[in-house]
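2024-03-11 09:14:02 DEBUG pipeline.ingest accepted 1 chain
2024-03-11 09:14:02 DEBUG pipeline.ingest length=96
2024-03-11 09:14:03 DEBUG pipeline.predict start
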Amino acid sequence: MRKGDGVFIYHSMGDPAVVGLAEVVEDGRPDPANPKLAVADFRFLSMIEPPVTLREIKESGEFSDWALVRQSRLSTMTAPEKFVEWIQRKRPGTRF
């Protein structure tokens, strides 16, 4: 992750969903507690209302090859550009 990157905030508890937006404020760096991991600093931007559920993403049929759909409990992953465009169409106020 690099400073200035947009980030979707996703939770997998209850009804898994993309619930908000954030921005990376400092480049990712090795986790001092575990060098196999990385940490980054974020700034919260906004909530997505209503949240975009994992069910809604799967039912679109457009993202079957995306890691979120195949293994939804990963902690970080790149969002495909077509997802960014799709979510902006579904939730017109969604902008980084």
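2024-03-11 09:14:41 DEBUG pipeline.report The radius of gyration is 14 Å.
2024-03-11 09:14:41 DEBUG pipeline.predict end
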